[in-house]
Amino acid sequence: MSITIKDVAQRAGVNASTVSRVINSDSKLSIREETKRRVLDAIRELGYHPNSIARNLRLKTSDAIGMLIPDITNPLFPEVIKGVENLASEKDLSLILCHTWDNHEKELKMIRFLLNRRVDGLLLASVHMRAEAIEEIEKSGTPYVLVNRGNRKDVSAYVVADNTAGAKMAVHHLIGLGHKKIAHIAGFLYTDTGLERIEGYRKELNLADIPFNSDYMVEAGYTEPEGYKAMNKLLLLPDRPTAVFAANDLLAMGAILAIHEKGLSVPEDISVVGFDGIWLVERITPALTTVKVPLNEMGYLAMNMLFNKMKGMPVEQERIVLKPSLVVRCSTDRVKS
User: Fold this and answer.
1) Which of 23, 53, 298, 336 lies at a 20 to 30 A Cα distance from 291?
2) How far is CA 111 from the centre of its chain?
3) SS3 244
């Protein structure tokens, strides 16, 4: 038989309401320290555990937050999630992860599931984030923050990387190595991330007076197989590129595989740069030059912003753009003369 709050009250010789107020650290409770100690001793001796479900229903809180991610197999997201979890656990909050597979219908279904669970807040790292989904969240009154995803209407709170600046770093590095035939394996063009990285690519080419060649740009999903397919298209060009900037590290890894399968070498024949800085790219051959995003910090800052919004506390900055950095490894080299 489970121990109840009445059992604790009987053991401590107090009312059940006193036990409840001790458990909830009621600042207005005025009792002697000896009485409080008796209650705490009774709780420990009887092994009493408060009914968190009943408590949360009473307080209209769940002590849980929901997080939507598009691809659980992408090593980018565990790094972001670690940052979220570090702060969530400090605040005694549980994290419910929902995987959407980049599917709008599933995304909407998961949002409704989390709202029905009455989560205290939402972190949204999913790709689509259409107006319909945002409107449904806002109608519920549930606080939310976009993670690694901006909002073109600039109405949502978010934590993102400076994608345009990062892309410019990547292309500037390749131009500095003498490359002029620089291709771009782009991410989905319906995402802010994909568009901003293309923008940086084109801006840096323009600064160097290198004409944009539409043949050198291929749109792809953010996965290794998509990078492989895109690179094979580029390798079929009569005047193939000498360098490739991929919109993320998985695309870059797929590109390297395709290059090697054609009997070519990276970076001797084609240099490759990725984006994100996932841990895996240090261990491939050749180790990948990439634009590194502070992923752990991104998750932590998003969770901190969400927590403040949940508690009705002031949020100093609702739109945080993190500066990436270029990490040069073995996948890039000077162009052959």
Assistant:
1) 336
2) 16
3) strand
Token pair 């319906």 is found at: 190
Confidence of residue 133 (pLDDT cuts 50, 70, 90): confident
The per-residue pLDDT for 207 is 98
Residues in contact with 255: Cβ distance below 8 Å, sequence separation at least 6, in sequence order: 185, 227, 228, 230, 231, 244, 246, 272
Ramachandran assignment for 197, one of left (phi > 0), alpha (psi -120 to 50 degrees), beta (any other): alpha
Indicate the pTM of the whole model. Answer: 0.81
Domains contained in the chain, CATH given: 5-50 (1.10.260.40), 62-160+295-322 (3.40.50.2300), 163-293 (3.40.50.2300)
**Tokens 């998961």 appear where?**
110
Instruction: Indicate the average pLDDT of the chain.
Output: 90
CA distance 78 to 74: 8
Q: Token match 């991330």: residue?
A: 193
CA distance 318 to 145: 9
Distance between start and end Cα atoms, the chain: 82
pLDDT score for 129? 62
Q: Which of 300, 289, 294, 302 lies closest to 323, judged by CA?
A: 294
Find all residues with CB under 8 Å of 233, minimum gap 6, and list them: 218
pLDDT tens-digit readout, 145-195 = 999 886 555 567 999 999 999 999 999 999 999 999 999 999 988 888 899
Query: How, if at all, do strands 158-161 and 319-322 pair?
Result: parallel
Q: Tell me how far CA of residue 109 lies from CA of 55, 149, 329, 334, in angstroms.
A: 27, 19, 42, 49
64, β-bridge pairs? 94
Instruction: Dump pLDDT digits (tens) for 277-304.
Output: 999 999 999 999 999 999 999 999 999 9
